[in-house]
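Lab manual, section 2.4: Encoding a predicted structure.

Procedure: take the sequence of the chain (155 residues), apply the prediction step described in section 2.3, and record the output as structure tokens. A sample record is shown.
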Amino acid sequence: MISVVNVIQAMLAPGLMISACGLLILGMNNKYSMVVTRIRLLSEEWRRIKSAKDNPVDGPAMVRLDSVSAQLDKSLVRLKLVRNAVFCYSLSVAFFIFSSLFIGLRLLAASRPVEWLILGAFTAGVITVLCGVGFAAREVWHGYRIVMIEISEAA
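Recorded output:
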């Protein structure tokens, strides 16, 4: 006979994955905020350079304007990658929650087909975490490239 304690223990097994995804989401949300702030600062600088009446856009100002434009373009790509990573991690949490619910249903209903739902939900959760990690890795690469644009202007 299955006790309520056994049901609760089995349902909490995916909780570790839910907690891990929560930490990933928290980190990526912080990164999302930083990228948005950087885009806003670069946009403000771009507008300031373009609207300078007493300083025509040539020479050093043109170099900086080109650099800011390139950084803005790459930052928008970076922002999309962070968004995609957060979405994947959030979707993973949903799959792990479904997995937990299906485990409870399986223990209560003793239905063999529910085992496929459990496995499917958990596997889908792991796959979406992997996709999120892929987006996060690409985002790190883009962040590096943006810094290299800034450094090349100073050199």
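Check your result against the sample. The CA atoms of residues 62 and 135 lie 33 Å apart.
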